[in-house]
């Protein structure tokens, strides 16, 4: 294979660069690789951060700070001011939020009063609980026709909820 840059010499250096999730491959001869930015042709095996980190991992460790991909808010900034920067922060910090909620709220699921006006999510959940209790009562009383009607109503509500209709 010929060098991509000069086209004269045989390519003896092959680079794979991943930038912004896009993978590019370059095939260069030693002379052209040496001219590249960063001096790829003069790669020193022992003066490379990768190999230095193998010898002394604590010296060259890069610490990845959790942050929101959209607004750039870090977890430390959230802990400092107590506010998220954008709606995406809830998704970015979901794991940390779920660990904090039991300590702060006692639970990770709402169990309080249901608003009279709202999105219908709470109403549907309460209605499902009520119908399941009625179904259990009907089965206990051996009212199988009524139980079948309740079962169908429960399935209908669950299908509507799963498809996002409510």
Structural features, described:
The chain is mainly α and 166 residues long. A hairpin with a 2-residue loop joins strand 1 and strand 2. Helix 6 packs antiparallel against helix 7. It is elongated and about 90 Å long. The chain starts with 12 loop residues before the first strand and ends with a helix.
For this entry, give a set of tags:
two-stranded antiparallel sheet, mainly alpha, 166 residues, elongated, 7 helices, single chain
Report the end-to-end length measured between terminal Cα atoms.
60 Å
Count, helices:
7
Helix content: 40-55%
Q: Could you state the order of secondary-structure elements as H and E?
A: EEHHHHHHH
* Class inferred from helices and paired strands: mainly alpha
Across the major sheet, the strand order is: 1-2
What do the pLDDT scores average to? 76
The biggest sheet amounts to: 2 strands, antiparallel
State the low-pLDDT regions, or none: none
The tally of beta strands, per DSSP, is 2
In percent terms, what proportion of residues is strand?
Answer: 5-15%
C-alpha-based Rg, rounded = 30 Å
Shape: elongated
Task: Give the structure's gist in a few sentences.
The chain has 166 residues and is mainly α. It has helices at residues 30-35, 49-55, 75-81, 88-92, 94-105, 121-140, 144-162; strands spanning 13-19, 22-28.
SSE blueprint and pairings:
Blueprint: E1 13-19, E2 22-28, H1 30-35, H2 49-55, H3 75-81, H4 88-92, H5 94-105, H6 121-140, H7 144-162
Antiparallel strand pairs: 1-2
Helix pairs in contact: 6-7
């Amino acid at each position: 294979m010929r060098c991509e840059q000069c086209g004269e010499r045989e390519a003896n250096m092959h680079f794979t660069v991943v930038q912004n999730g896009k993978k590019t491959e370059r095939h260069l001869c030693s002379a052209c690789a040496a001219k590249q930015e960063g001096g790829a042709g003069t790669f020193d095996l022992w003066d490379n951060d990768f190999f230095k980190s193998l010898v002394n991992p604590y010296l060259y460790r890069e610490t990845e700070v959790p942050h929101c991909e959209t607004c750039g808010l870090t977890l430390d900034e959230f802990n400092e001011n107590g506010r998220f920067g954008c709606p995406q922060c809830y998704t970015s910090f979901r794991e940390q939020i779920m660990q904090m909620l039991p300590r702060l709220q006692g639970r990770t699921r709402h169990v309080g009063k249901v608003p009279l006006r709202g999105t219908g999510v709470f109403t549907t959940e309460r209605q499902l609980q009520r119908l399941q209790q009625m179904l259990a009562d009907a089965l206990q009383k051996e009212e199988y026709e009524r139980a079948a009607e309740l079962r169908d109503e429960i399935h209908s509500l669950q299908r509507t909820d799963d498809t996002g209709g409510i």
